[in-house]
Amino acid sequence: MVEAVELKYQSMQQGSCAQTLEFQIYFNDHVDNDFNMLFKILPFSSPYFSAGVPGSFHNRLFPKGTLHLVHSNYALQWLSKVPEEVQDKNSPACNKGKTYCTWAKKEVREAYYSLFRNDWKSFLNARAEELVEGGLMAIQLPGVPHGAVPSQTGAGLLLELLGSCLDDMAKRGIISEEKVDSFNMPLYFPSAQDLERVIVMNNKFTIERMEFLSQPEKESFDPILKSLHMRAIAEGII
Amino acid sequence: MVEAVELKYQSMQQGSCAQTLEFQIYFNDHVDNDFNMLFKILPFSSPYFSAGVPGSFHNRLFPKGTLHLVHSNYALQWLSKVPEEVQDKNSPACNKGKTYCTWAKKEVREAYYSLFRNDWKSFLNARAEELVEGGLMAIQLPGVPHGAVPSQTGAGLLLELLGSCLDDMAKRGIISEEKVDSFNMPLYFPSAQDLERVIVMNNKFTIERMEFLSQPEKESFDPILKSLHMRAIAEGII
């Protein structure tokens, strides 16, 4: 990314006396992230200055007008929390006995969708304040085809599998049923239309380009690989 | 410090419509520092944005002209390394059998002093590039009276005590003599005159104010307290 910006800058300055650019990269993650490990694996002699920024990207993290480029990679599918209604026994959106909205009724899916919209609004508002005028944002995240319900998607089915494992553990008495009931994954995989809608509604950014990266599921289902995958995603919060 | 800057700003803007200031605080320490712990103890709702910056303050850490105020607290007595001559058996400045220059001959003390000057030059050059024009730097560090040799100072005697303990351990065969020989503390406690000289010679900063904070040694010598003190200072590098 640093190289890309440098190349762009050089091509824009062609002919004139281009200054050498200096880069400062902020690495953001939750407070619970292992920043010590991150700092140890950063190259000793790197072409940029590094800083770690702890905190949720759903809130403000930087002073106004101090960022030129924001890059979010495989992170914005995370919601700020589990939708409250989903864990409320008296709500029609209660998702009792499940850990995600894979096969859930409309009310549960709508609770997830509603929080997705609020979270994205917070995210876009925060970044709009922090970016300089004309600043750029590049976002990569796993999404779903337009109109697909979670039970028609790979991620939805994988999370259903996790729920089913926890359910089995409860049935065998390894964990309590209440614990399974109280756990839901705070994830929402949006469609391109979902994203367009929140970005247009928010009105702080324009979409310059949107691309789909296909990532076909492997034909064979490898249980060990899948469990490692799920462990990497969910172990920290279970 | 944030409060002090805010008060100063408000008093300067009195009468006119003062903007609300936003603060971004960078916490710098070596890569080996426990940034995870630091981030966990930062107040959740703080009046500033936080970032951790790993790396040596003897080198550049930030892009040019991006800092308004630098504060170094009890850190600049650390040298970037042990002076090379001090560990060179063929040098007249070799400090064999000792861990600091407390009772050392002139050549050893000069090797420490020479590295102190070089390190401060690097530190001042780096900060001069990073600070905005008119930026401010506040430094607190433990020093010694003018003309005092290390054997006349509390810090020098405490480090001599550490050396003597390591020496005892070598004599009892707990650690090897070579290990003791290879270990020296990379510290230099400057006098006000030492500091004035490096800052004036460097010519990148002017001294606005210099104050002495007296910190009288307690009359009674508490061995447990002293060993805790020494452990906090030296355990990480021994």
From TrEMBL, chains A, B:
Gene Ontology biological-process entries: methylation
Keyword RNA-binding: no
Domain of life: Eukaryota
One of the record's GO molecular function terms: metal ion binding
Keywords noted in UniProt: Magnesium, Metal-binding, Methyltransferase, Transferase
Family to which this protein belongs: Belongs to the methyltransferase superfamily. Type-7 methyltransferase family.
Protein's UniProt name: Uncharacterized protein
